[in-house]
Structure formats: C-alpha cells, structure tokens
Please model this.
Amino acid sequence: MKNLWDRASNTLRDRVGSNNHTAWIAPLDLTGIDSGEAQIVTPTRFISDWVQRHYADAIRDALIEVGAPIARLNFRVAAPRRAAAPRKQADAASATPLIRAAEPEMSAPLDARFTFDNFVVGKPNELAHAAARRVAEGGPVTFNPLFLYGGVGLGKTHLMHAIAADIRARRPEARVLYLSAEQFMYRFVQALRERTVMDFKEMFRTVEVLMVDDVQFIAGKESTQEEFFHTFNALVDQGKQIVISADRAPGEIKDLEDRIKSRLQCGLVVDLHPTDYELRLGILQSKTDAFRAQYAGLCIEPGVLEFLAHRITSNVRVLEGALQRLFAFASLVGRKIDMDLTQDCLADILRSSDRKLSIEDIQRKVAEHYNIKLADLVGQKRVRTIARPRQVAMYLAKQMTTRSLPEIGRRFGGRDHTTIMHGVRKIEELCAEDYGMAEDVQLLRRALEA
Ligand code: ADP
Ligand code: MG
Model:
C-alpha cells in the first residue's frame, strides 16, 4: 500500500506542482482499498475538504495510473492529535493582570467594516478566505503559521481583521493580538528604551492568536527580527496560532534571515491572486448595496458596474475608491449614475488604468529583479546569468503587451523574431518544469501589473 501511494504521490507532484504537493498531497495517506474504493486518510477536516474539492480527480487518476484497482475515493479524517499543551508557567497568575491591563493598547484597533460578511469570495482569494475562516473557528492548530501574501489592496488586512473580529465575537475572553510589523518594531524599541523588555516578551507569549501584518517591513532590522523570531517560536511551541501577512512569499523577502524564512514556510503559505473580472464585479455589487443604504434614492444604471469591473483592474482599494467617489458625486449633483457621469467623474482613474505597459518597463523590472544592467539585458552577452533573464523579459513582453515578435526583436537590440520566439518557448518550458522559474515569472508579472 505504501509503495503504491508513494508512486501515485510522485506522479501527483508533477501534476500539481511541488508547492501544492507539499501542502495538500504529502499530508495524505492511503490506508487500504475496499471493493474498488481507495481509503484515504487526511490529518484535518480542512485539508480533507480542500483536497476533495480540488484534487480528487487528480488523485484518482494517479492511483489508477500506477495500477491501483480503484474506481472511487473515500476520505476519512484521522483522529485528532491534541495540540501541544501550553507550558505551565509558575508566574502565570501574577503575569495575567499586567497583560490584561496592557492589552487594549497593545493590539491595533480593528476596522469594523473588515469582517467575513463583507468579504467577497472568488477564485483568486478562495483559499486565503477558507484558511482564515479555519483559523477563526479555533480548535487544534492545524497549520502554523498561516502566511498570507499578495499585492497591495487584495484583502490581506481585511482577512486578518476579520479573523480577529470573529474570534472576539465567539470568545470574548480569548487574547487576540493584531499588529502591523511596524508597530511590533516600535513597541520593541520602546521596551528596549524603557527597560521593559521582559514585560514586552511576556505580553506576546501569553496571547492565543498573534497576527502580524506586512511583515516585509521587519526585513533588514536585525534586532527586531531576532525578537520576532523568539516570540514566534515561543508561541508555536505552545501551540498558539500565528497569522502573518506580507506583500510577497517568504522566500522572496530580501534581508530576512534564512531561519525566519524557513520557519515562515513551515505552515500554510497562501497566495492572494490578483482579482479577476468576476471577483471585481462581485465586490462592486456588494459595495453598491452598502452605499445604497447610505445614499438613499440614488440609482445606478445597468452596465456601469460591469464597465468598472472591466476597466479598473489594479486593486480593490482603487475599485472601492472609484465607487465611493461616484456615489458622492452623483448625490452632490443630484444625477443618476450612468455611463456619462461615470466617464466624467472617474476620468483620471480610467486614464491611469489605461496606461499601456511598455517593453521598456518590462526590461527595467526584469533587469532590476535579476540584478543585472539594462544594457546587458538587451545586449549581446551570452552567459546564462544574463541570457536567461533576457528570455524572461522576452516572454513577458510577448505575454503582457500587444507587440508583435519582430517589434519585440527590435527592442531587444535588433534581434530576429525567431530568437524571440525561441526565448518565449524556452521560458514556457521552464515554467512548466521548474517551480522556481514559474514563481519568478509570476512575481514579475504581478509587480508589472501593480
Ligand atoms: P491589503 O492589506 O492586501 O493591502 P486590504 O485588506 O487593506 O488590502 O484591502 C483593501 C481594501 O479592499 C479594503 O477596503 C478591503 O475591505 C477591500 N477588499 C479587498 N478584498 C476584498 C474582498 N474580497 N471583498 C470585499 N472587500 C475587499
Ligand atoms: Mg494591508
């Protein structure tokens, strides 16, 4: 059975990518086959649900491929392992009042609008939302930390506040601490100055859920990283839940110590993807309902929301701002919200999201990313460390602009269109087989879309 599953699992790695494999396939086990039904055990209900929804077919196919006589899958959740019991602290009783008193100013205030109810779920944020819900439900810690990452305005802070609000509503006595990385840093420095570092440490180490937002900001700050690392480890050891957000994946944060990177990667790393049309429309509809209550009597013509969802693709914050302005403006001038009013009122936003990405933008970004000179990127050198980034830039130019191959060739130092085509193909191949390359390309693409 073990052998069969190992082989199926290997096949699946190629199919789903190594990141997904680590997160979803590796935790599974095949325990037996009963009259054509593969018995699969999962460690948690969350993993079970997710795997059934997203990987059931792939798993079945892989098992059949390696010769397992099965037709169906049956998933079972393993008996729960208890989370590590909190370490008994002799001075817990005396520490408590101090923490209680200090708590209100420790946690940053929550935005009351950032709740799960107000969060619109779509394909790009489905997993992040499900994981956040799971954390808010409490119970044994299933992944630690939960690491949420993605570009600006895609809902990271919203989800973290929603977790905090949800936990506080369910269990008002639970200690939930939400801080930006900057606040964490500030308080640490303050504690150093006021010689209250012990209190500072105790404060963190007695929370149940710690959330640190925008953790990329502690990169390069050595003593803060050190303290963060210790706090982090102490909480994980006690089975406390940690939620972290950043604007990029742990491995991509420059000047972050390797041991911290690898600790951050130990849990569930979830990526909030750029919004798609459906999600943007969903968000616009939900915000419109909210605005309607506020601006009673305003009507919005059909087609306006669809138009905005098509045209404003940068991020949710801009989308929200546009809608807010539209309502405010319409109520001020006493007009209905139609296409004319929209064009007038949002001319600047529409124009800036119209801005075309140039090949030059792409080349600059790629050169910067790989830390090579722009002149080399478009020049004639053939060493791999330059030739590969050059092909990445060619690939992105083909994918992200409407330029033809000969045009792209001209901007890459007068190269032939077949050279460009070769470069594009090469990167396509590499993306399919090399996870690192696929990540690089995705990261660059996201940076260019921002
Ligand atoms: P980030 O922290 O990722 O930069 P935020 O959480 O601050 O982004 O989100 C920016 C704005 O967009 C907030 O007002 C938030 O409520 C809104 N927003 C983002 N994603 C969604 C969503 N899926 N549904 C509803 N509102 C969203
Ligand atoms: Mg944020």
Summary: Confidence is low (pLDDT under 50) at residues 81-105. The radius of gyration is 25 Å.
